[in-house]
Design goal:
The complex is a heterodimer of chains A (264) and B (307).
Chain A lengths: L1 H11 L2 H24 L15 H4 L4 H8 L1 H22 L2 H7 L3 H35 L12 H32 L2 H22 L8 H10 L9 H25 L5
Helix pairs in contact in A: 1-7, 2-4, 2-7, 4-7, 4-8, 5-7, 5-8, 5-9, 7-8, 8-9, 8-10, 8-11, 10-11
Chain B lengths: L8 E12 L2 E12 L3 E5 L6 H8 L7 E6 L2 E2 L10 E4 L11 H12 L5 H8 L15 H13 L5 E5 L7 H16 L3 E5 L3 H7 L2 E6 L2 E7 H6 L4 E6 L4 H11 L4 E4 L2 E5 L4 H11 L4 E7 L3 H9 L4
Parallel strand pairs in B: 3-8, 3-9, 6-7, 7-8
Antiparallel strand pairs in B: 1-2, 1-4, 4-5, 9-10, 11-13, 11-14, 12-13
Helix pairs in contact in B: 2-3, 3-4
Classes of the chains: A mainly alpha (264), B alpha/beta (307).
């Protein structure tokens, strides 16, 4: 499994994938954090149009606020990378090479997952770091006192946020990997996944609000946010629903991957 | 040829069958490939060669039958694949990675030392393009990279599907020599190719498929020796060929005109009679030779495939 992960990391670190990914993640993370701090007092500078004051940003929550906004984008990036890296093995015909060198399909899949999770971890850390630097540099201009950020409460909040976002990112990635295995085409996987999460779930949730608690993307976003204040859906419900979706998708895609003939 | 394991087989399959829906891609295939030999695997397009190779490599599950590769069951590919190098249905690599990086990915996964990569790129003549992206490679270069990848594990058995596709004559000769060297070193080679003249030169053994069924397996020379020889005759002047054709047909010879020559079924003894008929008619022969069918002609004859 470790050998497969090392091989997979060699593919993931290629400049055509890693440089644009980290550049976009850094740019978005910097922009969202800048926007939150820059627009303090002007209103609508938080998630879902909330107004975040400099007082709120001066609390331990402020440390991770900009980074938390990145949660969904990081999830979509992970979905895209996991899905395309998996489905590409079918379209390029490279899966047969990998299986000749690692005949255990479970180990192959686990190794790929480990490598992509490592990539997602670096991506997450990169976003957190750029968000923190931007927030720290903007704090003076926004009249935000950063003292509470570095208290144990601040660090603990940041750690929880980081973990929640990482769980959400890995879950989105796992869904991407499963979709990639099921559809065996990067274009179909990306199109279907992104249309579902970005468009369909938002329309469904907007039209019939009761569906929100059953939609996988909405639940994962909630996990990433660490549970939204005032939301009717609890964090534990979101975590449980997400786990259920993941179990079903892992079982389905895992069975297909293990049993399906590799004929391309 | 390595003679230390004469009674052992690199590949042995019994009743191997693969059915897709109602179509039998491979039906009751039985054949053996001795250790240390080069075995050609031939058959028309769609005859089941690639399906058989995929079953041997554990990529698809047989519908029925059994098989062994290097003494292990094909149901347990993890027991033998570390000793097998393979290129199936042409090379397949990551376009955005260089040739060397592509090999390193496979070396990582297989647990082979990365130092093998530059060595193998040199062996297949890609050392000076090792750093170029795979997508910039010509078909022949891609093929060479595929062969390098197959050689990564320093294999005891090499399974190659059309390894000379896209190679120029020099490249074909290099691959032929490489396969010979590997076989001399004890590596068993199982190679499918449409270049039958190439296989005739290097393959000691042959497995021939038609419509999913094995129609021959055994020594190549046994197959060729079993074919009926024929006599090739050419008149000194081309205008005499038609007349000679008619005279020989009248004398109850089965004659076919091919490429300006007359090809006549018959044993060695018929040559004198043919010469006499031509001489009596005042026709001088420029050529009178006994010939055996080539592997290509035998293949067409056995498979009914004239493509």
């Amino acid at each position: 499994m470790i050998r497969v992960a090392l091989g997979e990391l060699r593919k993931l670190r290629r400049p055509t994938l890693s440089i644009p990914t980290f550049a976009i993640i850094s740019a978005l993370s910097t922009f969202f954090t800048w926007w939150v701090f820059h627009s303090v007092g002007n209103g609508h500078n938080g998630q879902r149009g909330e107004s975040i004051s400099s007082t709120t940003l001066s609390t331990p929550v402020g440390f991770a606020y900009g980074f938390t906004i990145m949660s969904f984008f990081l999830g979509m990036a992970a979905f895209s990378i996991f899905a395309s890296q998996t489905a590409n093995e079918y379209t390029l015909g490279t899966l047969r090479n990998l299986l000749v060198r690692q005949p255990s399909r479970v180990k192959l899949l686990a190794g790929k997952f480990l490598a992509m999770s490592t990539f997602a971890l670096i991506m997450n850390t990169f976003a957190a770091f750029t968000s923190f630097i931007t927030g720290y540099l903007m704090a003076g201009q926004a009249k935000v006192n950063t003292h509470s950020w570095f208290t144990s409460a601040g660090l603990s909040h940041f750690g929880k946020s980081y973990l929640n976002i990482f769980i959400s990112v890995i879950a989105f990635g796992t869904i991407g990997m499963a979709v990639g295995i099921i559809l065996r085409s990067p274009i179909s996987s990306l199109a279907i996944g992104l249309i579902w999460f970005v468009i369909v779930e938002n329309i469904l949730g907007g039209l019939i609000t009761s569906t929100v608690k059953w939609l996988p993307g909405q639940n994962l976003m909630l996990v990433g946010d660490g549970g939204q204040a005032g939301s009717t859906i609890s964090y534990s419900h979101a975590l449980g629903m997400s786990a259920l979706y993941l179990l079903v998708l892992i079982a389905l895609s895992g069975t297909l991957f293990k049993r399906r003939d590799v004929a391309s | 040829m390595n003679t230390s394991h004469l009674n052992q087989m690199a590949i042995s399959v019994k009743g191997l069958t693969k059915i897709y829906g109602e179509r039998k891609a491979v039906s009751q295939a039985n054949f053996e490939v001795p250790l240390g030999s080069i075995c050609g695997f031939v058959g028309p397009n769609g005859s089941g060669k690639t399906t058989t190779i995929r079953m041997l490599l554990g990529l698809i599950e047989p519908s029925a039958g059994s098989g062994e590769v290097l003494g292990s069951s094909i149901n347990k590919p993890s027991e033998y694949l570390s000793k097998v190098g393979a290129m199936i249905e042409g090379p397949a690599f990551y376009p955005a990675l260089s040739g060397a990086e592509n090999l390193k990915v496979l070396a990582n996964i297989g647990g082979y030392p990365l130092s093998r990569v530059p060595e193998l790129l040199k062996v297949v003549g890609l050392a000076d393009r090792a750093g170029s992206k795979y997508k910039t490679y010509s078909l022949g270069m891609k093929q060479r990279l595929g062969i390098a990848a197959a050689l990564l594990p320093n294999p005891q058995l090499l399974i190659l599907d059309e390894p000379t596709n896209g190679l120029d004559p020099n490249g074909i000769q290099e691959i032929r020599n490489l396969l010979r060297e590997l076989a001399e070193g004890g590596t068993s080679v199982f190679v499918s190719s449409h270049l039958l003249s190439e296989l005739e030169m290097i393959a000691e053994y042959l497995v021939m498929l038609r419509e999913g069924q094995v129609i021959y397996f055994g020594k190549t020379e046994d197959l060729l020796h079993a074919q009926q020889s024929f006599i090739v005759v050419t008149a000194e002047y081309a205008v005499d060929n038609d007349r000679l054709h008619a005279l020989l047909a009248d004398a109850n010879f089965r004659v076919v005109a091919r490429d300006g020559k007359l090809v006549i079924d018959g044993a060695k003894e018929s040559a004198a009679e043919i010469n006499r008929i031509a001489f009596s008619a005042g026709i001088t022969l420029a050529e009178l030779a006994m010939e055996k069918p080539t592997l290509e002609e035998t293949f067409f004859d056995m498979t009914g495939d004239a493509e």
